[in-house]
Amino acid sequence: ALLVRGLSALLPLQTSEMLGGPGSSNEQLRLAAAAAQLEFGVQSSELEPAAVHRFETLLQSKRVVTCEDVKSTQEKANWESLRSYERSVYSALDRLLREWSPATAGREVLPATVEVLYPTPACNVRLAIPSWRVAVQVGCREDLFGRPRQASDLAVDHLLWQPLPALRIRLLTRLGWHVLEVPFFEWRRLADGPEQRQFLRSQLRGPAAAAAEAVAKRRRRRQNSVSTHP
């Protein structure tokens, strides 16, 4: 009840034009709305009328699908919103995925591309491989607890994420995404492009295989349905 009252009071005060990068007011509101729905079962019908539209809008996934000029402008803005480590990871991912399909020709591997600020009900995934349901969470200095000089001593499997990225990871996992965590100090240790791509490849083999298996299962179900209902 307290959560519902808080959202009912807060959401009418916010405007839909609030935009920004990680930690912006808009992202915080989207994460809060998604957490309320996914983790506490809050529905728009429980909110005060003035908050209903804003709550539903925050949970919508929107993509730019208009003319090419608008799309290219939006893509440029998305790229410019990336931080330096995110751009480096994007470049390595883009090349890896372009090389992946020819290298796996004849196998059940879905074609894949990396997208920037891919929309989901919880948040815009800053780096995403949608066909494999992979979200790449690049951990920059400001995303992790501890002073920068201490961050390099953290183990990758014991990352201490700040609250917002931690919430983003948790909600994306609830939505069925595989979250690949790439902390800046681990990325910085990789010597060059081939080593970076090998690191990413080793992390993506499982999700790629899982996506292919999911498609194969759907195909088998359709075939079984056709055979049993001629």
Radius of gyration: 20 Å
Mean pLDDT: 83
Shape type: globular
Taken in chain order, the helices and strands follow as HHHHHEEEHHEHH
List how many beta strands DSSP finds. 4
What is the percentage of strand-forming residues?
A: 5-15%
Low-confidence stretches: none
TL;DR?
With 230 residues, the protein is of the alpha+beta class. Strand 2 and strand 3 form a beta hairpin.
Structure description:
The chain has 9 helices and 4 strands. With 230 residues, it is an alpha+beta fold. It has a 4-stranded mixed β-sheet, with helices on both faces. A hairpin with a 4-residue loop joins β2 and β3. α2 crosses α7 (163-174). It is globular, with a radius of gyration of 20 Å. It starts with a helix and ends with a helix.
Short key terms for the protein model shown above:
single chain; 230 residues; alpha+beta; four-stranded mixed β-sheet; 9 helices; 55% helix
Write the layout of secondary structure elements.
Elements: H1 2-10, H2 25-40, H3 49-58, H4 68-81, H5 84-103, E1 115-119, E2 124-129, E3 134-139, H6 148-151, H7 163-174, E4 178-183, H8 184-189, H9 193-228
Parallel strand pairs: 3-4
Antiparallel strand pairs: 1-2, 2-3
Helix pairs in contact: 1-3, 2-7, 5-9
